[in-house]
Amino acid sequence: MLQWDSVCLSRQAHFWPIGGHEEVPNGQGEGRKCCYSSELLLFLLFSCTLSSGFGCFPPQDEILIMRQFNHPNILSFFTAFVDNFDVFVIAPFIPFGSCRDTMTNSCVTGFPEIVVVLIVKDILHGLEYLHKKGFIHRAIRASHILLSHDRAVITGFRQAISLLSHGERVRSLHNLPGNATKGLNWLAPELLEQNLLGYTEKSDIYSVGIATCELCNGIEPFANMPTTYMLTEKIRGNQPTLLDFSTLPSEEMIVQGVDPTDTFMAQARKIYSQKKLSDNIHKFAEVCMQRQPGDRPSVCQLFNHPVFKQTKHTTLSEQLTNFSIQAVDYSRHCDENLKLVQDLSDMNLSTGSAFEWDF
Question: What is this structure's pTM?
Answer without folding.
Answer: 0.81
